[in-house]
Design goal:
By secondary structure, this protein is an all-alpha fold. It has helices at about 5-15, 20-45, 50-65, 70-80, 90-110. The two termini are about 20 Å apart.
Length: about 110
C-alpha cells in the first residue's frame, strides 16, 4: 500500500528497531498536529514571524519521515519574508495540511497507536 511517508527513512534513522520506530512515530503524532494548527492559525492571522517559526520547526521532522511537503514548507517560509497576500501560499498550506493528515492516520495504523 502506498504511504505518504517513507518507512525506509524511519527504519534507517531508527536502525530498524521497531520499538524505537514506534516511539518516534508517537512523538511525531504528539508534536506535529499542534504545530501544524498553530502555523495555520498564524498564517490566517498574518503573523508571519510565528508562521515561519512553526514551519521551520516542523521541517526536519517532515524530512525525517520522507513526507513530500518540504517544497511547500519552504514556500511558506519564503512567504513570511514577503508582503505577498496569503492567497499566494494557500495551496501550499492545503497540501501540507492534507498530506500530514494522511500521514498521521497511516502512522496510527502502522504502529497501532
Amino acid at each position: 500500500m502506498n504511504r505518504h511517508y517513507s518507512i525506509d527513512s524511519l527504519k534507517e534513522m531508527a536502525g530498524d528497531d521497531r520499538d524505537f520506530m514506534a516511539i518516534v512515530a508517537k512523538t511525531f503524532l504528539d508534536e506535529i498536529p499542534p504545530d501544524l494548527a498553530a502555523m495555520g492559525e498564524a498564517i490566517k492571522n498574518n503573523n508571519r514571524e510565528l508562521a515561519y517559526q512553526f514551519a521551520h520547526k516542523m521541517k526536519p521532522n517532515l524530512e525525517m519521515f520522507g513526507i513530500d511537503v518540504v517544497k511547500d514548507i519552504t514556500a511558506i517560509e519564503n512567504w513570511t519574508r514577503t508582503l505577498k497576500n496569503v492567497s499566494t501560499i494557500s495551496s501550499n498550506v492545503e497540501h501540507v495540511t492534507s498530506t500530514v493528515g494522511k500521514v498521521l492516520t497511516e502512522l496510527k495504523e502502522d504502529f497501532d497507536l
